[in-house]
Amino acid sequence: MTTKNTDVLIIGAGLTGLTLAYLLKSLNLKTTIIEANTRIGGRIVTKRNTNEAPIDLGATWLVPQQTNVLNLLKSLQIDVFEQFYGSTAIYQPDPSKQAQLVSLPNNDSVSYRIKNGTQTLIETLTDQLYQTSVHTDTSAISIQLKAEYLEVKTNKQTYHATYVVSTLPPALFNQNISLTPELPEVITDTLSKTHTWMHNSIRVGFTYKTPFWKHPQSSGTIYANSGPLQEFYDHSNAEQSVYALSGFMSSNLSDLNKEQRKNLALEQLQGYYGDQALAYLNYEECVWIDQKHTIKPENTFLMPQQNNGHLLYQERYLNEKLFIAGAETSTVFSGKMEAAVSSAMHVFDSLKAEIN
């Protein structure tokens, strides 16, 4: 097995890892990213079909208060646009009751989506990393503290790194990578009991030729307390030239196959919109509990956001050479894109201060 040297080894090519590598360009450090999956992006996934609206199946929405990620988008010249909710929503409180068209409250809060899909952020960051080595299908197996560096063994090669930054979901990091010496029990216990954002979510979407939901007696915003689809929204593109509906399906349906889930969703949409809902172009989905590089299915139940942003994640380990980063570790907007970017900035600031 070959050995490679690098100043910074980043484990995980999601938003945190790619943002950190982008920031590290200014420090003139040799940076390497390894990614266990065959694709990059982590929990950002956009499905694109020709002449159809792109469907985001992972991280999607931003709010104005998420300034770090919005500033990053601005610096990369990536446009955002306002999510269309409309003035009404289809609300079904109970499957035995007919759905109602209710008025949405007037408020000044808005949310944004990224033009051409959230994957645009991943693609643009990657294009900036021409001096950074990014290796997919490469899983970290162990990290061992040596006198002057950390030795990281993967399924393909060994790395000697001055610093290692894990951006994996904490529970996955704890399960998949052995450390020598072992971390203190207080941090391993926290790692194992940290909720993973999106871990049991099912994101689905349908593309259509026309936005039939956009008329006064209907809505593309759906809230249902029961049934397969729980939250659904207009997912048309920024130009409003190609159209889609997308949102969240009940996590209880993860054991069904894709066709079964699609048919249940269509039955619900047909109840709201009639047969025009059946004339879809494409159906896309992502069952996150099946993504082995996000979470292990045998994880015990954790409360949403449990241990997210824990103060132990702000510390460094293995002689100050190991950082535990990622969306779950940030103290602000934990689990969101803002948290992923903020976590990358936290690590960057720490490295910059030490090097300077």
Automatic annotation (TrEMBL):
Gene3D superfamilies according to UniProt: FAD/NAD(P)-binding domain
Residues annotated as domain Amine oxidase: 15-84, 107-345
Top-level taxonomic group: Bacteria
Family: Belongs to the flavin monoamine oxidase family.
Protein's name in the database: Monoamine oxidase
GO molecular function, one term: oxidoreductase activity
